Amino acid sequence: MSIFSKFDALAANRRDLETIGINPFDVQIETIVSPTEGIIQGRHTILAGTNNYLGLTFDPECIAAAQTALRYEGTGTTGSRMANGSYSGHRNLEKELAAFYGKRDSIVFSTGYLANLGMLSTLVGPNDRVLLDADCHASIYDGCRLGRAQTIRFRHNNPDDLAKRLQRLGEQAADTLILIEGVYSMLGDHALLKEIVDVKRQYGGYLLVDEAHSLGVLGQHGGGLAEELGLLDDVDFIVGTFSKSLGGAGGFCVSNHVELDLIRYASRPYVFTASPSPVTIASTRQALRALSAGSDLRKKLHENAVSLHSKLEALGYPLGAEASPVIAVVFDDKIKALQFWNNLLQLGVYVNLMLPPATPNGMFLIRCSVSAAHTSEQIDRIVAAFERLKPTA
Amino acid sequence: MTDYQQIIPVLYTELAAITKATVAIDENTELTGDLKLDSLQMMELLLIIEDHFDISVPVNVLSDVKTIKDFALQIENLIRCE
């Protein structure tokens, strides 16, 4: 058997896509025009599937900070944080993130994926137990797998199921790491954080919340769901990414645990990766400053989210969750979802097509993500495209 | 104490439901090979078995499970450790 035999099923799936002439996983944005518009297949297209929640990728002050860093610090660090790749900007960003969350310290990783991989592969090992929400992101599963922790799933957003499993663990529950997300990426639903914190208080354990899709979106200062619910003190570790609301690339973990700093020395995804470029660090620091200072961006984001959600709901589309910047339209058939996705693109609207096994419960999703940078007119054009493609009863 | 011989019929019943009983099964039937269970069906099976026997099955053990017999032995072991 060839080493390539394992790809036979993937190859067959790709042939199927080629047969129907649609490949949603090979989209090229020929020219990026703004946070919400690009040219795809020669056509001006509204981008409504980028997770660019605050639209900061073209923010003049972020660009200026990046340009200064590029000029004075160069294109890359060429090294790991543990060697020559820690500049003052990296450490300053860590201090600023810790201050933003009111936590003791933080670690910056090169991507959001690496933040989960780096934290989880190190924090829990073969003799440790993890209880994770079944709908957690692949980076969380992969981190647990790399650390070889005993990994037990609990039913999505089900505090009773979590409690049942903690109870089964007996005395070991107090040393178990509970893993959830603030906002789940596929459907945009919020974690039942208060109820999960109550379970944690009853049985013990540690809690890590991935705020990748809630940073910049929820909370008085944009910190995420834990901040919004006033539960930051109950969360042991907050993981997040720079590649969504902050418009860059990279990831982080903040915590009050003094041991966090030791993780740097033991985390292979941290030690054996080149650090983020000075450009990335500078633009992220500026974006975080903008977030900390407060603005009307989150208000505009929520207005856009509610507007698109209510209009799609009024059109009769089945939606995955309550109004949030992630709005998923649920389809019951893969081919229908593929064709719908392609038709939207032909009408000048780019969204994400999400297929199993990446989706919960084997759903086929047309996933929109809304930005504060979308204009009312762009939202209306997105709605008009959905209206035009509305299946007839 | 639930033993292997009690676990096997439960697995047969649940697998018949998941696969809609289109394939004949025995202890040596492979879950992904013969029954072609995908990752979602494997997770569905896991949740059903967990509820039935009131245990938590770490996803790690699935890497050692190829046949129905392998799975039943893992479940038996987990019940013994509870």
What does this structure look like?
The complex is a heterodimer of chains A (393) and B (82). Chain A is of the alpha/beta class. Chain A has helices at residues 8-20, 60-73, 88-101, 112-123, 138-147, 159-169, 193-203, 225-228, 260-266, 268-271, 278-293, 297-314, 334-346, 376-388; strands at 29-34, 37-40, 43-47, 105-109, 129-133, 150-154, 177-181, 206-210, 237-241, 251-255, 326-331, 349-350, 352-354, 364-369. Chain A has 2 domains: 15-47 and 296-388, Aspartate Aminotransferase, domain 1; 60-293, Type I PLP-dependent aspartate aminotransferase-like (Major domain) (Aspartate Aminotransferase, domain 2, 3-Layer(aba) Sandwich). In chain A, β8, α8 (225-228) and β9 form a beta-alpha-beta unit. The longest helix of chain A has 18 residues, at 297-314. Chain A starts with 7 loop residues before the first helix and ends in a 5-residue tail after the last helix. Chain B has 82 residues and is mainly α. Chain B is 54% helix and 0% strand. The radius of gyration of chain B is 12 Å and the shape is globular.
What would the keywords be for this entry?
heterodimer; A: 393 residues; alpha/beta; Aspartate Aminotransferase, domain 1; Aspartate Aminotransferase, domain 2; seven-stranded mixed beta sheet; four-stranded mixed beta sheet; B: 82 residues; mainly alpha
Separation of the first and last Cα atoms of chain B? 11 Å
As a percent range, the share of strand residues of chain A is 15-25%
As a whole number of angstroms, the C-alpha radius of gyration of chain B is 12 Å
DSSP helix fraction of chain B: 40-55%
What is the CATH T-level topology of chain B? Non-ribosomal Peptide Synthetase Peptidyl Carrier Protein, Chain A
What is the typical, i.e. mean, pLDDT of chain B? 88
SSE pattern of chain A, N- to C-terminal: HEEEHHEHEHEHEHEHEEHHHHEHEEEH
| Topology pattern of chain B, helix = H, strand = E | HHH
What is the average per-residue confidence, as pLDDT of chain A, rounded to a whole number? 95
Regions with little confidence, pLDDT below 50 for 5+ residues of chain B: none
CATH superfamily placement of the largest domain in chain A: Type I PLP-dependent aspartate aminotransferase-like (Major domain)
Tally of discrete structural domains of chain B: 1
Q: Order the strands across the largest sheet of chain A as they lie in space.
A: 4-10-9-8-7-5-6
- The CATH class of chain B: Mainly Alpha
What is the radius of gyration of chain A computed over CA atoms, rounded to a whole number of angstroms? 21 Å
Profile the largest sheet of chain A.
7 strands, mixed
Give the overall shape of chain B. Answer: globular
The third-level CATH topology of the largest domain in chain A is: Aspartate Aminotransferase, domain 2
Please name the CATH architecture of chain B.
Answer: Orthogonal Bundle
CATH class of the largest domain in chain A: Alpha Beta
Shape of chain A: globular
